[in-house]
Specification:
This protein is mainly beta and 384 residues long. The protein is globular. A hairpin with a 7-residue loop joins strand 1 and strand 2. It contains five helices and 29 strands. It has a six-stranded mixed sheet with strand order 1-2-25-24-23-22, with helices on one face. It has a five-stranded mixed sheet with strand order 3-29-28-27-26. A five-stranded antiparallel sheet has the order 11-12-13-14-18, with no helix packed on it.
Length: 384
Amino acid sequence: MMKKLLYILFIFGFSTSVCAQNKQLKFEKQLVDYFQKQSWDEITITRDSLYTSPFKEKFNVSVSKNFIEFDTTHIVVKNPYFADKYEEAEEDKDYVKNFPKSFSVIYENSLVSLFENGKFTCLKLDSFERDTKLENKLNTKKFKYHWIIDKQLGALSGNSIYRWNGNKWIRYKDYFPLNNQPKLFEDDEFIVYGDCHGEWGGTVYFFEKQSSKSFFTESTCANSVIKDKNGYNVLAHLGHGGGSTEIKTIADPRKLTLAKPIEIGKTLNGEALGYVDKSNAYKKKLDFYGVQIFSSFKYQDKELFIVHLSDLTFLAEIKGNEIEIVHPLFFSDLYTHDPITNQYGNYILMSLDHYGTGLYREISVLIINGNKILKVDWNENHSR
């Protein structure tokens, strides 16, 4: 009986391994074929060199030998408060009001999203059914924006910030630096956020909770923050021109330039405030031109990136100047302008905007949990 069980387990394990290898070979061939069609030169594309940067800061794109088998799913969820008057509106500023009013968050195992009527909708992450019980508890006020503050749900109502204590909304007495923009990162010391002025640059701000002081540097335009033993790794990208991306590692944000409250979010002489910082209190970890990196996050013992190149968006590891594709994601042009990525326990949440679809509003989210990646499109299919 034991021998029979071991034989069955061996066959199952062997079949699973073969299936994974076949899937990897399929993706590998798709990637080689795709980049071969994208190539302007008469060169042979291989798995080890799908694309080589022609710019000064050279990088090479290849298929990783450590392929990660993610399970990808795509669904469309309609705004439960969908209004036909917005759908039929001629002005973009009104049409986009069927998309969430602020970037979604994860709270109590639900995707919590805020819509134009000032009400929340809560979608259970295990089934994507509405948690109307939680919605009824939360929707006792009308809200303008929301975040996770100190691991609790926080939201702006009127001119005041409130925090949900599990039973009711309590006015938040401490100073909170945000009003109508998403948060990049938070720990015990800092709240990190940014602004973006496109080709005129961007700024990342570190709001120190203890002193209420804000320190800043240039970051065009920040989309993710990962903290490690070296400090705060701020990933930024810009789609202008051929696209660009960089990572700055900031060991001690207090050594950056101190921002005057009146300066925050503003430009100076037509450029983002970030360019005023001359502290050099950071190290450039990565600086590429001709590619955009939309997101960075921790996955098991790896740091993964969502990379956009040649009208294709994929998951990769980056080792020096080598971009190694670990999964082709949805094998599509999953484009976004000013995304934000945050981690909530085991969940990674990436909010995507797209100017031509919803201006600055969230039109989709990616939710990563273990080896599962779910893309949720609001109202209709936004695949391109």
